[in-house]
Amino acid sequence: MNAPLQGHAASNLHTVAPLLAVDNVSLEYRTPERVVRATHQVSFEIDPADRYVLLGPSGCGKSTLLKSIAGFIKPCEGQIRLLGQKVEQPGPDRIVVFQEFDQLPPWKTVKQNVMFPLLASKTLKRREAEERALYYLEKVGLSAFADAYPHTLSGGMKARVAIARALAMQPKILLMDEPFAALDALTRRKMQEELLLLWEEVRFTLLFVTHSIEEALVVGNRILLLSPHPGRVRAEIHSHQYDLHSLGGVEFQASARRIHRLLFDEAPEAEQALGFADIRIAY
Ligand SMILES: Nc1ncnc2c1ncn2[C@@H]1O[C@H](COP(=O)(O)OP(=O)(O)O)[C@@H](O)[C@H]1O
Ligand SMILES: [Mg+2]
Which of 4, 226, 251, 267 lies 20 to 30 Å (CA to CA) from residue 100? Predict the structure, then answer.
């Protein structure tokens, strides 16, 4: 499936700038008492329509990295570029979905919640904003709930509103920070499935953060493995062959075990990487 690139094909491919380039990025929190390094010299590239996953244990700097890509935290080393432009502040081309969907203002209906960022950022006038909100609510299966208030919705439905609200802004890249972590196991699985179906339909570019190996394999087409604190790149693997139907399969389980070893072994051996068709190892 992944034929090696040769000659012109390979060199042409590398002249196309990636959508997002994270280049040798280190991130720190500074307080008067101490400096906490969250990530150390992390590099990766995301292409349009990627479902790119940052995977690593709690505290390895995933959220910090996402906030930096969103423009909220400046790297102390390295650079982040979106379509070649250095990221220096937040912008409507990068929208974040966090796990706290209860941030939906309770006094606004579902439709008003989805319209709000479009109006607040003056992206669209009210009429167009309403049209676009209804379009994306239909995409996430919530047309019937456009006039409902958030407190009447289940956790999964609130997640879908948050996704519709983010996609309605039509960002260059959608950033999701453990968006389904607070949901029960069945709802979480359902949301993963819906996210993949939505991606099939809309083909947005996704950067998805998780600490779940299974979720990474299901959601991602590529996975960046980060070491424990401070996060460094351990490896990048291709995982497009998996979806929810692969869960529990022999190959899927073997990949999950290999990822586990790559993430947590102190002295990983090169042979652990052999099971993956494409892998970049960096220690
Ligand atoms: N506001 C903060 N001030 C100081 N240290 C922080 C702050 N936020 C996170 N950290 C530290 O930075 C590291 C990375 O945190 P985080 O990005 O939240 O990791 P993850 O999302 O992978 O769990 C952790 O050691 C965490 O304790
Ligand atoms: Mg986090």
Answer: 226
